[in-house]
Predict the 3D structure of the following.
Amino acid sequence: GAETPFADIRIDMVRPGVLRLTIDRPKARNALRTQTLREIAEALDAAARDADVRCVVLTGGPKVFAAGADIGELAAHDATSILDDARPGHWKAIRSFPKPIVAAINGYCLGGGNELAMHADILIAGTTAVFGQPEVNLGIIPGAGGTQRLTHAVGKSNAMLMALTGAFIDAQTALAQGLVSEVTQPELTEDRAITIAETIAAKPPLAVRMAKEAVLKAHEVGLEQGLHAERRAFCQLFATEDKREGVSAFLEKRRPAFTGR
Ligand code: CAA
């Protein structure tokens, strides 16, 4: 792929329509310093505006996805300075990214790293992946949505076990609890995520975008409001050329040619 101007991440078009974003700060175990988060937010912002990007694969290194917030930065903050922290703004940009993200996770996926992984829409883990929210060991708690997203993903008791004890879970446990969708051999994790992303990249982008938005609503609002949002998006898609094309192609027993309109 092309060289990127970033220091802590690499981006490349790994397949047509699929942008790969690799966290690459191995000396600090991919700890997410403010600059790392800013670079991820900037890369996603550009990807949101690039029609050639249909899906993102988010990955780290073979031994560590990301070891959490940069503890050196945390050490420099007190209760006043943390209020003006730039990081919540970067997290907001990441969670507002409208296209699908598939995470490929090998090795340590801890603290803010696990919170970043949970910003992905689909999580694929290698057998060596280890997940945890060890913030309690530092006298703090997860600060980037972990208490909420982890609870939605694995349920109250499992989330409490991780957040209160700081204990790690392995990939098989993460699979059993619903934190990840699949567990692969570590050398195949990224390939599997890319294959899923390629499949998504070939789908009509408006339908994909609205499906992501509607599924995320399930964690934000009550059932009636969520059903209403789903209905509205469903009806809007009836105005698209890709809906006409997808339905016609099925009835005519041919492959659809989607245009994104
Ligand atoms: N922040 C800053 N530096 C980190 C780091 C982090 N989160 N994790 C690792 N590093 C650094 C170490 O300080 C060390 O630096 P030096 O080489 O300069 O000494 C280097 O990375 C290698 O670390 P280890 O020697 O510890 O590597 P290891 O392979 O033996 O262990 C690890 C890996 C299990 C991930 C271990 O480094 C670790 O436990 N890291 C901290 C995990 C953690 O507590 N994360 C939560 C952070 S708080 C948070 O994330 C808040 C939030 O919700 C936003």
Notes: The chain is about 45% helix and 15% strand.
